[in-house]
Amino acid sequence: MTTADASPFGNSLSVAEARAQFAGARGYLAACTLGLPSAGTLAAMRADSESWARGEACAAEYGAVVERVRTSYAALVGVSPDTVAIGSQTSVIAGMVAASVPDGAEVLCVDGDFSSMVFPFLAQAYRGVTVRHVPLAQLADSVDANTWLVAFSLVQSATGAIADAGAIGAAARTHKTFTLCDTTQAAGWMPVDASAFDATICHSYKWLCAPRGVAFLTVAAAFGVLLRPVQAGWYAGEDVWASCYGPDMTLAADARRFDVSPAWPSWVGAEPALELFRRLDLAAVRDHSVRLADALGAGMGIEPQGQAILSWPDPDGADLRRLGAAGLTASGRAGRARVAFHVWNDEEDVSLALAALRR
Question: Which Pfam families does the entry link to (predicted)?
């Protein structure tokens, strides 16, 4: 995977410069649960709230913000803006894809993947769609001629494990299988090339630090023609402002036909968030985050994982409680304690976590 081209938003930022945008982030080890707002996002949302209160909010101006965010996200993941649709939630977008799976087809999923990438496909059982679950390490080898779609998260939510996207893509091409990749736990801390998949989904409220409710679908042309825009509304129209009323429907010719009407204030906050991450070298962010996670792992006797998320068995939640008692914010998932390192973290956070865990 490669980093996107140079940012159109000005000079690049170092990780240290980006860290300065996040006040009060000491001990916050939970980007995998909820990102933190940058100073730019806070300022933009406050200004928007004040404008709204004065009766100055403008729908057309919100629309312009959405298009700038769409363009920014496209550049971040290496695709053209006309292949990007906007949405609100991973599960809603995945549900649209699931509704497009042919009757009786097979979808291959990862055993233990986040439910938003599993439940929408299980919900299609009534029309004969079958879902097969395999361990992440076996995903590429499990694709076969019967698999219509392989749906997986690039980074697993519970463990932080990174999928071998190259091997999965190669297997999918061999068997003429489509690929749907959820990049929610990847985009923002590592380079992501969305063009490597038939479709990707990303909810940007985690590592990209946007407000919740800002999600994206990228879709390749050959796959897009197979998708049913079952959530089409006025925002999916070729001319948005001419699509407010029926009975005629003329949907956008590009990926915008899959758009969902945006929750405007969230997109105002997303604009500076996406700009910030476009200005970062995501390979440097990856190296920074992985170095900290591996340092914590080394202090705990865990072999280097090469991930921004470090998790370990914690069935009774004792380690999670120790972290919380020390004023650190972490999370527990699937019987495991889970910490994440992002641009705002540094070596002091590692030391604080080790002291809390008494390692």
Answer: Aminotran_5
